[in-house]
Design brief:
16% strand; rod-shaped; disordered N terminus
Length: 192
């Protein structure tokens, strides 16, 4: 992740110096178990080399250094998900618009807005990825049949050409699912 680290020894001390794209420099004195961070000209003091947790996000400073995250803020990328949460799921904690499952929704929007599983591209298993449901068809990514007509959203949009948000696409008072089951056309009001 672009982390540069150097270990050098000047008896009786061994120092670790690391810098990261997060704009901080980390210095650990392994001999005295002290650590320092310099970010944007400000100096922060840790409470014990790599084992301390300066930002309180549940990751030690050493883990943050290795991950390339900023040990002075609990949410390096500012997406509302803590570094420890993102890293525990194997997500990119340095990129706010990350999309772990490739469903066209950011991880943060899946957690805070849509309540979908950020590691499952099709949370309701209807054949449409969550982002397409939300942004193209305006269907519920947690309900495989958003209009409750007996047809899943994917079949409505990809096979039958019906509206996945209207249980009676042609307005003939017969449910789209019933028309398909009765071999009539759910897009033609005269076919029931």
């Amino acid at each position: 992740m672009g982390l540069k680290s150097f270990i050098f020894s000047v008896p009786p001390r061994t120092l670790t110096l690391a810098s990261s794209p997060g704009g901080f420099v980390y210095i650990a004195d392994l001999g005295t178990n002290r650590d320092w961070y310099v970010k944007d000209g400000d100096t922060f003091f840790g409470n014990g080399a790599a084992g301390s947790d300066l930002d309180g996000d549940g990751l030690t400073n050493g883990d943050e250094i290795l991950a390339g995250t900023d040990p002075t803020t609990s949410d390096t990328d500012g997406d509302g998900l803590s570094d420890s949460y993102e890293l525990s799921l194997g997500l990119n904690s340095n990129y706010a618009a990350s999309d772990a499952d490739g469903d066209f929704l950011t991880d943060a929007s899946e957690v805070f807005i849509h309540l979908t599983d950020l590691l499952d591209a099709d949370a309701d298993d209807d054949g449409l990825v969550d982002g397409i449901e939300v942004t193209v068809y305006y269907t519920d990514p947690l309900d495989p049949d958003s209009d409750d007509d007996g047809l899943n959203d994917s079949d409505e949009t990809q096979i039958h050409g019906t509206n996945p948000n209207n249980h009676d696409t042609d307005g003939d008072s017969v449910n789209d699912g019933d028309e398909i089951n009765n071999h009539t056309d759910p897009n033609d009001p005269g076919s029931h």
